[in-house]
Write a structure and sequence with these properties.
About 35% of the residues lie in helices and about 25% in strands. By secondary structure, the chain is of the alpha/beta class. The strands form 7 sheets. The chain has a 7-stranded parallel β-sheet, sandwiched between helices. The chain binds adenosine-5'-diphosphate and zinc ion.
Length: about 725
């Protein structure tokens, strides 16, 4: 029996404190229990994230005061999952436990009351209201528009502090009451119910495969490989219906980036209120409410990004991981888990079917099908036999030769845009870099503006007139002349979305262009607003980064242009080809989704690269077979698991020495089947002021690497200024 509990308290969620477990509570405390603990001079609520027999502070420990509630907040199955995550991803159990329970839920405890403010004034107003001071007026007006609101919402929306609200209460114009009413973040947005579509042949077969898997005792995992526009979502919807019919619940994961209102609406308009939505833009209160709607069974379907995987859906019948190849499923802080892989594990623990869907499944998943570990459902045709868009690749080297200089738009693309605009069709342009130019260079001496903290060049942002570091966000003024040689002629090398926008303005001044990247999408609603405008034809050309590559479904888009398709190939990563193939296929998939056929024009400097050619000829299998051969030869995933150790610190020599020492100790105990590199500077050698050194390990079995790593972590202490991150199944090698 453990005698020490590690507790996170609600006021400080980022670290845990040790407490002694008194004898009478021994039986009722476990990981996941909510407790009350003495903290300084108060009593606070907390949450047990770990148990131990030993504490470094043993002589000054306080005792846990009590246990709150009978049932721990984390169901057993999810607790099991947390332990698996900690073990597999080499992370402390505390981190894993924190990951599986949203902080909004931890902070507020099980019972959650809000102060709800309601107007006591009727619609037509009252004489007293007309002469209120502006602040109070604003409060009354806000309540009139929105109906009852919580105090914090009211403050946010009216822009007032609490005091005018209190004054109004005294005047008898508003009431403030404690309420446990759960607020629906979608209140006021009624959706029309949709009926299930009559399925296309391939969809029917895919659904049958999935339902058959769901009905088995050990359901397993099915890969749904469906080209863009093949109607995967409809298959998910009907598979979920199958789960509901059996009295089961479901979880749907989508990458944050495609958690668009468009996507969410498709689920809500089929299933209404039994859908709980978890996204990053929810307030803590909303998140808390949504979580409890799931926990108490009001909502049987949870949809959300990565962390929605841990929703406490009871009697889980199906987990869908849409766009399963997306790297955003990997969390980039401890625990560095991949939600797709953890989904498969949750499926195994809870005996529930897992569907991984994508137009371009990751090679790992493709290989799991080949090896018979996953089932397969394929949909290679678009709904209603709409044709796949025709892709043309323009060789920008030839274009440059013809023009005498590197151009941004090829003749073909410009003509394509004109043609579409003339017949009132819409265009999407994709470039995966924001800002104006990739760097600022001096032609005379070769000086490049670099970030002081990171080993990358600064990006020039014209509208803000600043140099920005895309790694650490540092901002700098644009120098008037070269800081090195004093020459005033700077060259803007490379292009970003901001520059394209400017050039478009000259090419087609009448076209209505909207730019969508993280610079223009700062406000909460701007995403929805722009997409609505595009949908209703108020915008002709949508220009953007990653953000517009996926999930968008606009029937009137008949041309997609990709500028600089090989940008993603010039990355030192064995997955560069796979990423490029996926990106091109996804972007191209935005074209021709309606009655009209679509066309894609891809501009590239290496047009013959296999990834680009495979995307052009829609040859997923061909691409996979070829890339898998290369990976097998070099023993890269999926033929091995890969663990990346990154040492970071301010002092380069210290970092290097620490990495060397760690490596030497590790080498002594690593089994022979593990291949490993010596410590080398990371491709991104310095970031946010920290030097980075890496060791890469590869082996067929993860534990053969993680056990020894854990062992060395415990025995070889790193110097104070150096930290180590362990990334199991790393997706980013930077
Ligand atoms: P994917 O996710 O595979 O790219 P979607 O699920 O977005 O494809 O489907 C593409 C379009 O086809 C959507 O507008 C969807 O409403 C429509 N659709 C899907 N299945 C059917 C069907 N069986 N009959 C008619 N339309 C369908
Ligand atoms: Zn920087």
């Amino acid at each position: 029996m453990a005698s020490i509990a590690k507790v996170v308290v609600e006021i400080s969620l980022d670290r845990e404190f040790d407490y002694r477990i008194p004898a009478h509570l021994q039986a009722s405390i476990r990981v996941g229990s909510q407790v009350t603990v003495p903290f300084q001079s108060r009593e606070l609520r907390g949450f047990v994230v770990g148990l131990a027999n030993y504490s470094a502070f043993a002589d000054k420990l306080k005792e846990i005061a009590g246990v709150v509630g009978e049932k721990p907040l984390i169901p057993d199955e999810i607790m099991k999952l947390a332990y698996w995550i900690a073990d597999y991803y080499c992370a402390p159990i505390e981190h894993a436990v924190r990951t599986v329970l949203p902080s909004a839920v931890r902070k507020r405890g099980a019972k959650h009351k809000k102060q709800l403010v309601a107007s006591l004034v009727n619609e037509t107003g009252c004489p007293a209201c007309d002469n209120l001071p502006p602040k109070q007026q604003a409060v009354v007006e806000t309540l009139r528009q929105h109906g009852p609101l919580t105090v914090s919402e009211l403050k946010e929306r009216s822009g007032c502090s609490e005091s005018p609200i209190k004054t109004l209460e005294k005047l008898g114009l508003v009431s403030i009451e404690e309420s446990t009413i759960l607020r629906d973040p979608h209140a006021g947005m009624e959706l029309l119910r949709t009926e299930p579509f009559a399925l296309m042949v391939e969809q029917r077969t895919a659904l049958d495969t999935i339902c058959a898997a769901m009905d088995q005792e050990k359901p397993g995992t099915v890969l749904l490989h469906g080209v863009t526009g093949s109607g995967k979502t409809e298959v998910y919807l009907q598979a979920i219906q199958h789960a509901l019919d059996k009295g089961q619940g479901a979880i749907v994961l989508v990458p944050e980036i495609s958690l668009t209102p468009q996507t969410v609406d498709r689920f809500r308009s089929r299933f209404g209120d039994c859908v709980a939505v978890l996204h990053s833009s929810l307030s803590d209160g909303e998140r808390h409410d949504e979580w409890h709607r799931i926990r108490n069974g009001e909502a049987q379907i949870a949809i959300g990004a990565r962390s929605a995987l841990f929703s406490p859906v009871e009697n889980l019948g199906l987990i869908v991981v849409d766009e399963e190849h997306e790297p955003t499923y990997k969390q980039d802080e401890s625990p560095r888990y991949n939600a797709r892989d953890v989904a498969v594990m949750r499926g195994r623990i809870e005996n529930c079917c897992v569907v991984l869907g994508s137009a371009t499944p990751a090679l790992e998943s493709f290989n799991n099908v080949r090896d018979g570990r996953y089932g397969l459902a394929e949909m290679l045709m678009r709904v209603d036999d709409r044709s796949m868009p025709l892709m043309r690749v323009v060789d920008m080297r030839i274009e440059a030769e013809k023009e005498g200089r590197a151009s941004i738009f090829s003749k073909e693309l410009v003509q394509g845009i004109y043609d579409r605009l003339n017949i009132n069709e819409q265009v999407i342009l994709f470039l995966n870099r924001r800002g104006f130019s990739a760097s600022l260079q001096c032609e005379k001496c070769g000086y490049v503006a670099e970030c002081a903290e990171c080993s990358v060049s600064m990006t020039y942002h014209k509208r803000a007139h600043k140099l920005l570091c895309h790694i650490c966000g540092a901002e700098e003024k644009v120098p008037d002349r070269c800081p090195d040689c004093g020459d005033p002629d700077f060259k803007y090398a490379g292009m970003g979305t901001e520059r394209i926008e400017e050039v478009l303005g000259k090419l087609c001044p009448k076209a209505r262009v909207a730019r969508m990247d993280s610079d223009t999408m700062r406000k909460k609603d701007s995403y929805r607003t722009v997409l609505d405008q595009f949908k209703t034809g108020k915008i002709d050309i949508l220009l953007g980064t990653q953000m517009i590559a996926k999930g968008l479904d606009f029937p009137n888009v008949t041309l997609v242009g990709v500028l600089h398709a090989d940008m993603s190939l010039n990355v030192p990563d064995f997955r560069a080809g796979e990423r490029t193939f996926q990106l091109l296929t996804q972007v191209a998939g935005r074209a021709g989704r309606g009655e009209k056929a679509g066309e894609v024009i891809v501009q590239a400097y290496t047009p013959h690269h296999p990834a680009i050619q495979a995307a052009r000829s829609l040859d997923y299998e061909g691409f996979c077979s070829q890339d898998l051969e290369f990976r097998r030869e070099l023993n890269y995933p999926p033929f091995s698991h890969l663990v990346l150790l990154t040492f970071k610190g301010e002092n380069e020599l210290e970092v290097m020495a620490a990495a060397d020492r760690f490596s030497a100790q590790l080498e002594r105990i690593l089994p022979e089947s593990v291949s490993h590199s010596p410590p080398v500077p990371a491709p991104l050698a310095r970031a946010k002021g920290l030097w980075r050194y890496q060791i890469m390990l590869r082996c067929e079995h993860t534990v053969k690497m993680t056990r020894p790593i854990r062992h060395v972590q415990q025995t070889c202490r790193l110097p104070k200024g150096v930290t180590l991150t362990v990334d199991v199944d790393a997706l980013s090698l930077l």
